[in-house]
Design a protein that fits this description.
Length: 290
């Protein structure tokens, strides 16, 4: 099942009943003593929830040693499957794969949370539940929360903080792409900010290769732009100048990516219209489900 997944050298694979765990050696013994292999019972004893990483559900936070805290993210379906299978997945090993990639990203010096484990628990037949374990980034909030807190109009000091943060996000994404990583779901919720320093998170469906092509970079940038459009329509204070500041920091003097993005944005208007129709349809379906 896990033959084609690289287990990082600082992690230990453990089989306990129906649970397969990959735990960072530094935290392995402590987590096993706390009964991490029975993840459902483990989480019942820890009811505190993270103030960020809201996603589809609030994530449990577990105190560790030396004032560190662990965030537990359970994989949940979105869209159509949300009401059908919710937390059950068929075949595969999503949390184990994401752990391997996230550790590679973290070890490359790219700002992200530090992974410390993954859990794959078999259920019925070929179905399983998956969990991802990481250290909490203190005082972090996602980019949506960060921009909402700045408000409109922002004070002069808040505006300066906002500009520095936006530039830092552009530099971080450039580093991410230059190192050969592609983000499977690059959106505002998957960018955290702590003390003006941005962090990329959530690498499910992401991958690494030697060199990313210009179309791959464009695809990531357009996905992020779609997220910006969606939240801007909901009142998030993002301006045209903010976008230009981000892209200047990201592209720099790379004429190729400037050319690719100018061409992509010329055809983006029609695509954006289709996305807006999709958002309206989703809101209608959600209202019917309530």
């Amino acid at each position: 099942m896990f033959k084609n997944i690289h287990i990082p050298p600082s992690y230990t694979p453990i089989k306990r009943g129906k649970a397969f765990l990959i735990l960072k050696e530094r935290y392995r013994d402590h987590l096993l003593q706390q009964g991490i292999e029975d993840i459902e019972k483990f989480l019942q004893r820890h009811q505190e929830r993270s103030e960020y990483l809201h996603g589809r559900a609030l994530h449990p936070v577990v105190p560790l040693r030396d004032r560190e805290r662990m965030v537990v993210r359970q994989y949940l379906h979105g869209g159509f499957f949300r009401g059908v299978t919710r937390d059950l997945y068929l075949l595969g090993a999503r949390s184990i794969r994401e752990l391997s990639l996230t550790e590679k990203i973290f070890s490359s010096g790219i700002a992200t949370f530090q992974p410390i484990g993954a859990i794959h628990r078999s259920t019925l037949l070929f179905f399983y539940k998956a969990y991802f374990l990481s250290l909490e980034i203190p005082e972090a909030r996602d980019l949506i929360q960060y921009l909402q807190e700045i408000g409109r109009p922002p004070s002069r000091e808040a505006l300066l903080h906002k500009r520095r943060t936006i530039r830092s996000v552009g530099v971080l994404l450039r580093q991410f792409h230059q190192t050969g990583f592609f983000h499977g779901d690059l959106q505002l919720k998957n960018i955290l900010v702590s003390e003006e320093k941005p962090f990329l998170i959530d690498f499910d469906h992401s991958y690494h290769r030697g060199i990313l092509t210009a179309p791959e970079k464009r695809k990531n940038l357009l996905r992020l732009n779609r997220s910006v459009e969606k939240w801007k329509r909901l009142g998030l204070p993002i301006t045209r100048t903010d976008r230009l500041r981000f892209f200047n920091a990201y592209a720099g003097e790379d004429e190729e990516i400037w050319k690719v993005m100018r061409k992509a944005l010329r055809t983006y208007a029609l695509r954006l219209l289709l996305y807006r129709l999709g958002w309206a349809l989703q809101r209608g379906l959600n209202s019917l489900a309530v």
